[in-house]
Design brief:
Elements lengths: L6 H23 L5 H10 L15 E3 L2 E3 L5 H15 L7 H21 L4 H13 L4 H5 L3 H21 L4 H12 L9 H10 L4 H30 L7 H8 L17 H10 L2 E5 L4 E3 L2 E3 L2 E5 L6 H4 L14 H19 L17 H10 L8 H22 L14
Antiparallel strand pairs: 1-2, 3-6, 4-5
């Protein structure tokens, strides 16, 4: 407690304890949408499809078998845990690991802030902001498969950035990039930052070539394994099933998939969902009478498919203070722009979320830019209040979306 000298810091300590306790409880209680663990069980049986009696959302039916179209690395990571638990006759659910992934994300954010010369207390504020005062809160609290994959990709990219700011071993960074490729493809575009760093650097040509090879060597191995994985499942190394599954949903802002998964026609709709969409209002069905006045209780809730990034992550508005003077800031901006363009062109902006969770693909890079936005390397009191208040506000929104899935804590569902 010696770190927490003032009231805001002590309040931070209280919120850290409360929110991580919630994360622990929810990750170890919620067992639905356990696709990656189920697929890991299939791997142990020598199969690449789900068992016939496993029924869940977002499954692709192909040749009378059910497949998972997301990247396979999370299942590979889970396989040893699933195996050990199976020996004991138990099921290893994703949340058992996801909680600890979030702890590692918190630790890396803390260390990155320290590296950039922030105090320990400010670094804790930054780490807490990333986890609970941003779109990441859903991934911290809910171990559904989609969020589990994003927790892995966020951790991998944060680790790559940590390696960049410390020992800068490009082979290690390359391994992190290979994990992103096999987990969330758009997150892999973060490799642009490292490639630009090498190309613009002052090293000799041979050294640059070696560094590029260090990055893309593991990536090439990952790509080959993905091709083999696709071929074994569908008989085509270039077909991972995602487009076929997307077409079966019929979603998309342009009314179809004539332009494939990516189409610039999707940009206006996605931009609105990412950055403009506001909150909805839920009114209770029953009025109350107070002092002779009839009142209708109401509260704010998320409007599908989610509210603006800056509503659930308002502290990140500070990135607009960045002047992009340093080379690192410029490379971060270029990479984030490329990744955001890809996301905005994507056929869908996500579902069942507080804010645009696909932005987690570049949030670790935005976090670094966020750290650079404070010239004196010191958080203001207002920024700290914003971080603490936003986490509580986000959890209130979280309940309006996910309370049905945590009914053991509050056995009601909010309709409307």
């Amino acid at each position: 407690m010696f770190l927490f000298k003032d009231s805001l810091s002590r309040l931070l300590f209280v919120e850290i304890v409360i929110f991580f306790s919630l994360a622990f409880a929810l990750n170890f209680k919620i067992t639905g949408a356990n696709h990656f663990s189920e697929l890991a069980s299939s791997f142990l049986r020598g199969e690449l499809h789900f068992r016939n009696d496993y029924v869940d959302v977002d499954q692709l039916s192909f040749n009378s078998k059910k497949y998972w179209v997301l990247g396979p690395f999370p299942s590979v990571l889970l396989t040893p845990f699933v195996y050990v638990f199976s020996l004991l006759g138990l099921t290893f659910y994703q949340g058992y690991l996801q909680f600890f992934l979030t702890l590692l994300v918190f630790y890396l954010c803390f260390r990155l802030a320290l590296i950039l010369k922030y105090s320990k207390e400010d670094s804790l504020f930054f780490a807490f902001a990333f986890i609970f005062s941003s779109v990441y809160q859903v991934a911290a609290l809910t171990p559904f498969s989609w969020y589990f994959a994003q927790a892995i990709s966020v951790l991998a990219l944060l680790f790559a950035m940590f390696e960049f700011f410390t020992k800068r071993r490009y082979l290690i960074i390359g391994i992190a990039m290979s994990i992103l490729l096999a987990t969330r493809t758009i997150a892999f575009l973060s490799v642009v930052f490292f490639v630009l760093t090498i190309l613009i650097g002052k090293a000799q040509g041979k050294v640059k070539c070696r560094q590029i090879l260090y990055i893309f060597g593991p990536v090439l191995v990952s790509l080959v394994l993905l091709f083999l994985y696709n071929y074994a499942r569908f008989g085509d190394p270039m077909f991972n099933g995602y487009l076929k599954y997307a077409e079966s949903l019929g979603f998309g802002f342009d009314g179809g998939f004539a332009g494939g998964l990516f189409n610039i026609k999707n940009i206006p709709g996605n931009f609105y969902n990412y950055f403009v969409s506001g909150l909805g209002v839920y009114k209770y069905k029953y009025d109350i009478t107070l002092g002779g006045f009839k009142l209708t209780p109401f509260f704010l809730k998320v409007s599908p498919p989610g509210t603006s990034f800056f509503v659930v992550s308002p502290v990140f508005l500070y990135v607009f203070r960045s002047k992009l003077k340093s080379a690192i800031e410029k490379r971060l901006f270029i990479t984030i722009f490329i990744m955001l363009f890809a996301l905005l062109s994507f056929y869908w902006s996500g579902w069942l979320q507080l804010g645009p969770r696909y932005t987690l693909d570049f949030l670790p890079l935005l976090f670094i830019l966020f750290l650079y936005s404070f010239k004196e390397r010191k958080l203001s009191g207002f920024a700290k209040i914003l971080i603490l208040g936003s986490s509580v506000f986000n959890f209130g929104l979280y309940l309006t979306v996910y309370i049905c899935y945590i009914c053991y804590l509050a056995p009601i569902c909010l309709g409307g």
